[in-house]
Amino acid sequence: MACILPQTKSAAINPLKSSQPLGAAMAFLGVDGAMPLFHGSQGCTSFALVLLVRHFKEAIPLQTTAMDEVATILGGADRLEEAILNLKVRIKPRLIGVCTTALVEMRGEDCARYIADIKARRAEEIADTQVVLANTPDFDGSLEQGWAKAVTAMIEAITRPGERARQPKKVAILPGCHLTVADIEHMREMVESFGLEPVVLPDISGSLDGTIPDRWVPTTYGGTSVEDIRELGTAGQCIAIGEHMRCPAKVLRRLAGVPYAVFQSLTGLQEVDRFVSLLSAVSKAAAPARVRRRRAQLQDALLDGHFHFGGKKIAIAAEPDQLYQLATFFVGMGCEIAAAVTTTDMSEILEKVPAKSVQVGDLGDLEALAAGADLLVTHAHGRQAEQRLGIPLMRLGFPVFDRLGSQHKLTILYQGTRDLVFEAANVFQANQRAPTRFPLQPVSKGGPATGPGSPLLGGR
User: For the residues 345-360, what does the mean pLDDT come to?
Assistant: First the structure.
């Protein structure tokens, strides 16, 4: 069990954490026809927008209530109502996801009552548009908690409650925020290969996958439909990926009685085998041939790659669930976790991280703890530590803005685990240290010494 070390600094040095509103906005972006709305100042929205655009390299729909000094003092109810009505009239979204910020949370605004009043008084004007509130103050939690709160809020506000007729082939999948576009798409394909019908919430693989529409669309295009969210309670099984998705899975079971299973990681042979076993049990079918072939390829990759991992020291900085995912992967390959840094101590998964301790902190802490490591693993802001320490950096997580294709990198299931093995092994090979060259012993004119004191015979 890892020892959780709390943050003690009063300021962040090269921050690791992204805020809750940003995580909630990312989750809302996984719904078709959605518009995330930050209830706060323009600055809160602009920083989040910059990170999203630089990471996904896409046009990101994101709006703000633009709270100014007067609204901050007198209250933001009017600004929130005006923003919702303007969005409804101008772009007609299917979903408006309201993400609160520290500004309104510190002021103590009752945003839930504001939205209830708006829905009651403006029912005709905002008809056919779902308005969902996620309370996500910047000063608490991190990206993971914001994502989970948005998914939970969508289920509570949209999914029809009560026991429904089950569709045994329908599977509700709740992916964590650490899964990439490629991860979600690949997972859907695997579930479908068992003859099942997956409904993914949120599905950023449909809205942030890099496609170009034939016309300008002011909202998200692609992703989970509002109707799919409404009928989520008819699923025969719910699968949550990541410990932070346990809460929305519990809410779905409470509302509609859908049984759920939580996978804390889908990286590594054993974890993926458990996932495949569940799909076989739900579908009552054996694993397809292509799935078994991917497993055989992973086995071969583990055999080929393990020579490069043994004894290596790894320093990781990531959100709690991604930290667990990566740490268990590297330890399973024979590495040692030299440093583990995360964003918040709110996740129970941290106790299971295979490291002596987990530091809640920033990339400055990672740099201080990573001296002597063979590999740094974190997002793009770790490049400064890479330069100063002279340790290679493997970029994973959010944001990655100085490399192309980060969202199309696989990290889960058999194929994603195989790709991680190859990527890390290639980094190790490219940064091998030259072998130490020992000076040769002097040789007498009569030839090599072979007496009892000769080093060739083990003598002194």
Answer: 95
Q: How many structural domains are present in the chain?
A: 3
Q: What is the pTM of this model?
A: 0.90
Is the peptide bond prior to 399 cis by the omega test (within 30 degrees of 0)? yes
Terminal C-alpha separation, the chain: 48
- Answer whether residue 171 is part of any domain: yes
Q: What is the pLDDT of residues 225-260, one digit of tens each?
A: 999 999 999 999 999 999 999 999 999 999 999 999
> What pLDDT, on a 0 to 100 scale, did the predictor assign at position 443?
53
Q: Is residue 453 part of a domain?
A: no
Q: Tally Cβ neighbours within 10 Å of residue 319.
A: 30
Residues 301, 425, single domain; the answer is yes
CATH number at residue 111: 3.40.50.1980
Helix axes 20-28, 42-56, angle to 10 degrees: 60
One domain, residues 315 and 397: yes
Q: Please tell me whether residue 403 adopts helix, strand or coil conformation.
A: coil
The pLDDT tens digits of the residues spanning 140-151 come to: 999 999 999 999
Handedness of CA 347, 348, 351, 354 (dihedral sign): negative
Beta bridge partners of 239: 173, 261
